## 1
Amino acid sequence: MSEARGADATAPEGPPAAAEPIPLARPVIGAAEEHAVLEVLRSGQLSLGPRVPAFERAFAARLGARHASAVSSGTAGLHLALRAVGVRDGDEVVTSPFSFVASANVIVYERARPVFVDIDPVTLCIDPAAAAAAVTPRTRALLPVHIFGWPADTPALERLGLPLVEDACEALGAVHADGVAVGARVHPAVFGFYANKQLTTGEGGMVTVGDPALKERIDAERNQGRAPNMDWLDHDRLGFNYRLSDVACALGLAQLTRLDGLLADRARAAAAYREALVGIDGLGLPCADAGGHVRGWFVFVVQVPRGIERDAVVERLRARGVASKPYLPAIHLMSYYREAFGHRPGEFPVCEDVAARSIALPFFPGLTEGQVGRVAEALREALFS
Ligand SMILES: Cc1ncc(COP(=O)(O)O)c(C=O)c1O
């Protein structure tokens, strides 16, 4: 984390300039990314070229996964992974209501039913006991979400003996308590590379998986259902266009070479926030690494003290030049899910309480200590003035 440059002693006198607004997120793109992308543009092979398997191999190696398939988004990856583990019309998939809406939408794409269960109030991930209680003969799979980069208790869910698809879209760099990186277990795990993620390709995603047969199916279905050795005029299964271009994969490869630094910078920014915010009465902070769990820092989300109106705090922060966002709303209370599945408030009290009080603060690798200090000061004022 770098410190902002101090005032210029030679600057002309005048009223102090208003402080620069602090954005919510900002990707780190440098000469390595520019060079890698230019090389692809000049090569003339913009898609279905060599950067795709190169990115897949490098990503799998970085995590210790056996295989990886590059896809056009995290959502596309989740959709293909669910199909690969056999989710079909009429099935149930047990999942978290405290997530980005895509993790539930992909279940509905296959005309299966998302069966939401409440979350753990500390980790904010699916509560394994609640998941076990929700299993029925129709349950085809479990879809835990490593929310805000915290490794969900996958080992406990594995003991339920059902197929799993991990939503690791927010969790690059996370490690389970047993020392296995998120994404390096046998079942599919899905990462997202949208612009605010730990590693970005603008839009994009990756499915990691242990079973080569699942990789083959995912690769075929991302490419209109064409098997790797099959002529493009014939297709042996239904598929989609969920491919990731060589341009995006080149960007991803360049980002991967700097991933350790990006993750370390995020962890440093999170530590600075924790130090600056820890004394604020009633403010909920993200749980700290413990017992071998390592968070892959993606966002820094706080929960406003009970009794304080969250949306007013967001507005007061904005007026002080600090971008922030209510993050995340409960999926089951979104209009579509209420109408399609008849959900009502009160079903998942932990999730609803957390969702009503959560705010994402500015968070990115280049965040300076000065900016963290400004955000902390603005947050104190916004909460208690
Ligand atoms: C938890 C979670 N799941 C799924 C997704 C979907 O990823 P994408 O936007 O790449 O489709 C996201 C992305 O923001 C996410 O945060």
## 2
Amino acid sequence: MVLSVGQPIDRYASSCGYCSPPGERSKTDSSRTAAALNALQLSPEVYQKMINRGWRRSGRFCYKPHLRSSCCPLYTIKLDVLSFKPSKHHKKIVNRWNRFIQHGDDASTGKQKGKDNARFDLRSSIHASEFRDGQDQVFAHRFEKYQTGIHHDNTTPQGFRNFLVVTPLHQEHIPYLSPQSNHLPTHYGSYHWCYRLDGKLIAISVIDILPECISSVYFMYDKDYEAYSLGKLSALKENILAHELHTAGVPFLKYLYLGCYYVHSCQKMRYKGEYHPSYLCDPESFEWYPLATCAELLSQHRYACFSRPERSLRGDPGPELVQDFEWSDPQEPEERALEHISVISEVDGSQISVITANACLFLLHRGARSGSCFEHHISALISDLRSYSHSIHEFRDFLYDLITN
Ligand SMILES: [Zn+2]
């Protein structure tokens, strides 16, 4: 069994990039997280459970947005790849790209009108312009070009590494039920899917392959090819890869989690709703609801709760809601949930001792009551290992946040 190891980070608020003009961020810290974690190692199974409860990762950094108190709630969205039907627009994108690769046709000329729908098979069409050439290599300057050209951000090669290369996901063998096809990946984990044209890297898609889905982490492309909608093309390719993995004998892998989140309040991010049938994760029950049935609630509220519509909220989060987020005690988890979490209690050279979270909290509370030095001892270790937690209460709160979220 692969242990998943994480270092706690306190809940925090940050500025938002969805409700400001392009390239700008909100003036106030109006986007809030419910919990965050610096993951040292995650098994694909544990990370799958996390993203099914609204978490995402950026490098090793994992976070779960607090939708109720954020200006632009971020909903996890997944596409059912087995039932996916490409739209006319999607077919056009694939055909245009294939024509460009095979015949050098320019995107701007709009040739071959009307032929895009004739006998279209997404699976064969999507592979038509591909070839595979060995090891993936990522070039930071491509990313810099993308970030400065498209997002107007300044970045560094180190920032690129931390954001898009480093991963906490442990590579685990995919247990195919049938003989594995050569071009399919052998392991769950993080991949860079590189798009090259005549040897030149023109786009990179960062994806995680997990037991139930392909989760797209990030996509970046060369601005020279903007006219070919490479972001949408990559989503179609990832959809086909998920479909192929399922067909090759990974029965539970049936979904594509579209990059990051669905943001209904941001017109630019609504394109994720173009893929049908897709589902949104309910922010309170973590059940999945068809996007089509969520539309009305989303358009009438800032915060939409699909499982309990009466809990939906209109208008920006007021001071009460923000205060509630900042000062509320975290929900106490069930005892059995704590049994699955271990806390490092002692480090002696290369020996690391762990105890269950239950035992840890029990000892901490007993220590606090009797005034023994145990409290001091364990909190010293905790603050060594967990630089963001300085007291028992903070540590307990963090643990509760993490487990109940
Ligand atoms: Zn916002």
